[in-house]
Amino acid sequence: MSRKSTNGHPGDTQTFDLFDDTAAETSEPKEKREASEPTPTTDATQVSAHIALSDTTELLALCERWVARGWLRDLDRALVRFLAMEAPDAPPLLLLGAALASHQLGRGHVCLDLNATLNAPDFALSLPPEGDDLTDPPPLPSQVLATLTLADWQAALHHPMLASNGPGNTPLVVSHNGNTTKLYLRRYWQYEQTLHQEIANRLTGEEGNGICRSPIHWTIDSGTEPAGTCRSQIHRAMGDDSHPGILPQALNTLFQPTTTLDWQKTACALAARNRFGIITGGPGTGKTTTVVRLLALLQTLQLAEPDAQPLRIRLAAPTGKAAARLNESIAGQVSLLPTEALADLCDEAVTEQLKASIPTEVTTLHRLLGARPDTRHFRHNAANPLALDVLVIDEASMVDIEMMTAVLRALPAQAQLVLLGDKDQLASVEAGAVLGDLCRRAEAAHYTPETAQWLESATGQPLPPDYIDAQGQPLDQAITMLRVSHRFNEYSGIGQLAQAINQPSHAQSDQEKHQALNKVLRHGYPDLHHLTLTDDAALDKLVIHGSHDKFINGGEGRTDHNGAPIAPPTGYRHYLNVLNTQRPRGASFEENADAYNDWASNVLSAYSHFQLLCALRKGPWGVEGLNLRIAKTLRHEKLLYGSDFTLEKGWYEGRPVLVTQNDYGLKLMNGDIGITLAVPDPRTPGKTLLRVAFPTSDVEKPIRWVLPSRLHTVETVFAMTVHKSQGSEFNHTALLLPPTINPILTRELVYTGITRARDWLTLVEAKRGVLNEAVTREVMRVSGLEEI
Ligand SMILES: Nc1ncnc2c1ncn2[C@@H]1O[C@H](COP(=O)(O)OP(=O)(O)OP(=O)(O)O)[C@@H](O)[C@H]1O
Hints:
- The chain is an alpha/beta fold.
- The protein is built from 29 helices and 20 strands.
- The strands form 4 sheets. A 6-stranded parallel beta sheet has the order 7-6-8-9-5-10. It has a 5-stranded parallel beta sheet with strand order 11-20-19-12-18, sandwiched between helices.
- Strand 8 (390-393), helix 17 and strand 9 form a beta-alpha-beta unit.
- The longest helix is centred in the first third of the chain and has 19 residues, at 186-204.
- It starts with 42 loop residues before the first helix and ends in a 14-residue tail after the last helix.
- Adenosine-5'-triphosphate binds next to helix 12.
């Protein structure tokens, strides 16, 4: 094998990197769905299907047929061919496993679970959605694997060149845990190993450079203390019974006394105690508020030490959009911190130092790690670690396993990592659902009696017995789930709907869930409108002016939790009106840059008031069909102009675009939204040319103007997929569910879509009943992190 090379070392960058772009070739995550009814087969089909398990030529031919049908990717077949060429004596069952394991990566899974595959073989390929016509189908996986037993498959997963049970050079790794067997491409096995090892080291305080035994559990010798950046510092900061230390005092300065358990205070205390921490919670539960206070707490503890320098803290998010949003909210929160009172707790006059040492700038993970063009390797890695003491990552649910591993590899051993995110949101499109996997036990907390006692001393709050578990694992002690939404109270339909949807399937029956949902939808909440489409007009009305008349009082007169007025819901007419009515007149673009920047800022801000989200990309109910349809509707309203061809494939004034790949040359990030505007052409007086306006965080140059010809990876964004909307929020969000159920429609997708709504939500069912079906299907991502 010429291209495989690894010494199995977590810091090793020479891991097996066959088919480097597997993660980029993504489609849709795996969903729990009804298996398609196997198509009746002939004996001949069954015979040929069975032969594929014992004959490599037959297996390759079968893969060929699967690829032709779109059930398997070219990439997966190429891998199998390559392996078969390198090792002609490889068992066909091993090759089949390799094809399926590779295929899972494109669907968000880190590995192939053999047991699950044998239980529901048709989930292993990208079969068409239920209801699609399957004429002359190739053999289904369920037919191919019909007589195969787990023992036979396990027995075939051996070949000195291709598969091993752990460290080594083989391209495949087989992992056994109890009765479960998983097959990995080595690179992904290595990612999991590194993650386990690095996180476990942060929880125990050990240096990280070894390989974990497989399977790995987050068990640490009893009696091991949790590891903080400076364990002795935290110990000192606790004080004792007679003299409370700086930690409890600072927590009391940051948090007002409450009658109920303040989870935000708990989160700060736990995150300060460990070198690894997670703060998870739904929308508006105060993740940002909490992390700002945590940073103030950490700096206070640091500056209270004699001659200490402030901690070097960096904030990051997976996308430019998420980074910009955190930037916005964090700046406001920092100004509210009681820095003087905190500084008083330190012996020295450190108020100014404390204020200055809490960062407000948020960068993307790609920028932080130093992305380099044309390679997946970063400038910062184990050999060239990041220069920081604390790293906070927001929207961590969007971080895939490869990126999370890159972060942990580049993090100095003594540095502290805090992940923020909503564990219930859709995971990244790429393989791995790291935050969700790590937070599997967060709901019940599982704090040990020792942690509970420490927390009570630190925060003055006793923990209810429900959250205490003598069997709690070390990872549990580093996670806090925020449980109270401060944005959506009991009078908010958005909040109530999110809660009703988010109940896991083990907590209630499908029927109970449907009843709970329908109760919320019928209640008449002021911020929620449920629309079932019966004709085209209702959808047109929604995208033009937001169907504000469907909300109580037309959406007038509402205030937010601080008493500030909430603007009524709008549609796309709003930003197009701003575009048309506020256009600077008669001035050259260069000489009147401020006026053009103000105009563009207002248009962009107006655009963010409304966004239509949908589940699919293709077809009339997907992004492609909806974009064209909405553009034509707006043209009919005389809000946009252009031929059918222009509206579908060209550039026109008012076209909103979404950047779909980072472009470092243009300083544009995946997720950025720009609006196309006509500005005076400097070369031809009296004429205009189109430029796309993107917002920046630079107050001097608030708009980046880009010529359309320079934008290669953008798409129209009248409709945006829920996947792409992660990390964004819109005043009025409309979530459109297609008329037929599709594997991509799941509870996580609906939850993520509706929680993008800040003030108003219109939930659109193209056909009644789809919502009920979607919310009872859960994303099941396969990875080894589940075994923690
Ligand atoms: N303990 C609290 N008491 C009252 N209001 C709070 C509290 N914590 C947060 N808030 C307010 O609730 C709103 C949401 O808080 P924040 O932005 O911190 O939540 P989040 O979880 O980060 O939200 P998002 O869903 O946007 O990620 C903010 O207006 C904030 O000021």
